[in-house]
Design a protein that fits this description.
Shape: globular
CATH class of the domain at 82-295: Mainly Beta
Distance between the termini: 53 Å
Strand content: 15-25%
Bound molecules: flavin mononucleotide
CATH superfamily of the domain at 82-295: Electron Transport, Fmn-binding Protein, Chain A
Structural class: alpha/beta
Helix content: 25-40%
Largest sheet: 8 strands, antiparallel
Oligomer: single chain
């Protein structure tokens, strides 16, 4: 078996970057302690990969915060610093078919029938406002009825009974579409939920790709070798052979299960949910399984994991289509709803054209801002300065109504229908002001003084 497991990754990563992994040996509870530790560390500018070895009520180690740091995601992708998006795009474009194998660690322990009991799993409660403990790293695998083309997507899930989960398909992506197809055909949709796998599999799962594009093949591209898969016992769905835990089951399109509220990426507790139910018939686990949690809310981890593949795709698309675009950035302050674009505008209107392209392509975006290429789009402060000094509302603002956005935006209606805003904060023609400057010689003196003062 090759090193496609989370454990293989953790061992290799910790050996290479011991300072970026923090093992917490003091006892913590399943109820919010881990979220609180992540929040406290983030307030101090620290985003280590966290391993909790003594979690009261958990029969295994809990690993979390894996995606909280972008430099760490770069290392996972073997990318040079600053090359995150290019590396993701390059590897994702080299998608490879899966390799089906007969055996794998996830087949180490299989509980089916009467032995299925979800209450034994060490789910965390992330926020005081949550309905209860949640699976936050669950990746649902589903396949179409004809060709077995698969889809991967994340779905928050709560244990509703020993054999069922309440879940939400509010993104209304490809899993939602597969479920509608199953409903039209009068059948239940077989699914498998992967909880804990190699981080490159997890990144691929968050990509929003065309219907029929199988993210398991993208995972193969990111891994640089075919994803090794085994079939689940009842429905034969192909899941990573080296996964930590896999729950196999079915979604009955007609069944409802209450779930939510849950602390979402918006920073709000949301009960907007499609209230679906997964009936679980099999639990598959490695013998040495750890519990992989994704930090909830608008944590760095949740935002990065949801965003990196999308940013990579959008930045590549923008630069490919609009030659004047020099950079783009999705600021964390805007959760998934804002993007800043830098343009080196050669003729009037180019910035607006790029903004309209972006608003059309990325359904999560609500406000996009264009600035000139000398403005650092990774800095909220610089973009807001450009907005303050270059932008006139009557002239530089485009609003488009009635578009499908995120149902988790509390200001949008319950279906997520939203309007979108493009703000052109480039200087534009006829702009007449001189930006203040300090000479290089004076800057050298300033640096010398500052070095002595601090
Ligand atoms: C950590 C994380 C949790 C997510 N939770 C949910 C969820 O509970 N429900 C949902 O519909 N989408 C959720 N999403 C978004 C979908 O997984 C994402 O849009 C997915 O890529 C859709 O893919 P698809 O169009 O291939 O189905 C989550 C994403 C991430 C990264």
């Amino acid at each position: 078996m090759s090193g496609q497991g989370l454990g293989d990754f953790l061992r290799g990563y910790e050996a290479a970057h011991p300072d970026d992994v923090c093992t917490v040996e003091r006892p913590v509870s399943l109820d919010q302690d881990i979220t609180a530790a992540v929040w406290e560390l983030a307030d101090r500018g620290r985003h280590p990969l966290l391993r909790f070895t003594r979690v009261e009520g958990a029969d295994r180690e809990v690993v979390t915060n894996l995606f909280a740091s972008r430099p760490r995601i770069e290392r996972v992708l073997d990318a040079e610093p600053g090359e995150l998006h290019n590396a993701y795009q390059r590897r994702a474009a080299a998608a490879r078919p899966m390799a089906e194998v007969d055996d794998g660690p996830v087949l180490g322990r299989i509980d089916a029938g009467d032995r299925v009991d979800l209450s034994g799993l060490p789910l965390l409660t992330h926020f005081a406002t949550d309905r209860g403990p949640y699976i936050t790293s669950g990746i649902v695998v589903a396949e179409d009825a004809e060709g077995g083309r698969g889809n991967l997507s994340y779905h928050r899930s709560v244990v509703a009974s020993p054999t069922s989960l309440g879940t939400s398909l509010h993104s209304r992506g490809d899993l939602w579409r597969l479920l509608q197809d199953a409903a039209a055909a009068g059948r239940r949709l077989p699914v498998a939920m992967v909880i804990g796998a190699h981080p490159l599999f997890m990144l691929a799962a968050s990509a929003r790709v065309g219907f029929g594009v199988d993210e398991r093949e993208i995972a193969g591209g990111l891994l640089g070798e075919p994803l090794e898969v085994v079939r689940t016992p009842r429905h034969g769905l192909r899941v990573p052979a080296a996964a930590e835990v896999v729950l196999e089951g079915e979604i009955d399109p007609a069944a409802e299960e209450d779930e939510g509220p849950f602390g979402e990426f918006s920073g709000y507790s949301s009960d907007r949910s499609t209230r679906n139910r997964i009936d679980v018939c099999t639990i598959m686990q490695r013998r040495d399984a750890v519990w992989l949690d994704v930090v909830g809310g608008n944590s760095h981890e949740h935002l990065n994991l949801g965003r990196v593949p999308r940013e990579a795709e959008m930045i590549a698309k923008l630069k490919d289509r609009f030659g004047s675009v020099t950079a783009a950035h999705y600021p964390s302050s805007g959760t998934h709803f804002h993007c800043y674009v830098a343009v080196d505008q050669r003729r009037p209107g180019e910035a607006r054209q790029a903004l309209l392209g972006l608003l059309g392509w990325d359904p999560y975006l609500k406000t996009v801002v264009a600035v000139d290429a000398d403005v650092d789009v990774t800095s909220d402060a610089e973009v807001l300065w450009a907005l303050a000094t270059h932008f006139q509302p009557d002239r530089d603002m485009i609003v488009i109504d009635g578009l499908p956005g995120s149902a988790l935006d509390p200001s949008a209606d319950k279906q997520g229908t939203t309007s979108r805003l493009a703000l052109d904060a480039t200087r534009g023609e006829g702009f007449d002001a001189q930006r203040i400057e300090i000479s290089d010689a004076a800057r050298t003196v300033g640096r010398q003084i500052a070095d002595r003062v601090v």
